[in-house]
Amino acid sequence: MSIVTIGIDLAKNVFAVHGVDATGQAVLVRPNVPRAKLLELIASLPPCLIGMEACSGAHHWAREFQAFGHTVRLMAPKFVIPYRLSGKRGKNDAADAAAICEAVTRPNMRFVPVKSIAQQGQLLVHRARQGFIEQRTATLNRIRGLLSELGIVLPLKAAVVRREAMTRLEDLPGWANTVIGDLLSEVTRLDERVAQYDQHIRAMARQSTEAQRLMQLPGIGETTATALLSTIGNGRDFKCGRQMCAWQGLVPGQYSSGGKQRLGRITKAGDPYLRSLLVLGARAVLAAAKNKSDPISRWATALAQRRGYWKAVVAIAAKNARMCWAVLSRGEDFRLPA
User: Fold this and answer.
1) Whole-angstrom Cα distance, residue 179 to residue 184?
2) Average pLDDT over residues 227-236
3) DSSP H or E stretch at residue 20
């Protein structure tokens, strides 16, 4: 019989392919397919359902397979693990491919949308910018650590570290002056790179109508808007705003049993970079809410007084995520409620 479902365990050089027919019988088992032969193998098959784990290179392969008429579904690896029949001790590429082939046919399986090359390009800008920021933070911490060896203890604030290190630079003896001077020059270089990538993000936001709509929301700037668009697209893969919040880890974890509802801390699932942008935007909304009288600002201020600062920040971030989903899925401009 013809193949109807295929599971592919992705790797760098050698791939495992597992295909089944309409009755579920394995008719294509290739545990060692070289990278150069994978595309040729898939092109020779009739259009079918292909499942893969959402990992490095998955979106590239999904676009390649879709060009041959196949239906491609990507899944989070943690959703595939329960379908591995051999369990944790029997993990191998062939077992993973068979588990993927089984998981992709489940009616309640949650899939990852395939990103376009444009979306991935925008994400690369965000990843590179975040990498430069992390390098800058690490360099400043290295300056603090080295100066502490010389008895100069500086606070955590980046601006103070820059100022004090520059002020004391001429007083440092010998090689210490050379090292700290080089590190300060590296911080300046990273500042320039971050500023350059901020301009790239600003240009992406100007060219996107959807980003302009998102930026009408309080607490959503150019960075958050473009990061959301490059990650979730039009947002229609989510059924509702709350599902998007759950995906971003902005909803409380639930430990309910016996009819008793127990809600804990937020799950912090999903992309931490996107969640951190929403939280930073929520902090800005709450800081500015004291001087505003619109409904969202009044609600945020009252919530902070009633439940505390951080719970209010998370609640605002979750509300912003829901409003972002509504703007993207409906394709309409944001209108502030009366």
Assistant:
1) 9
2) 92
3) strand 14-20
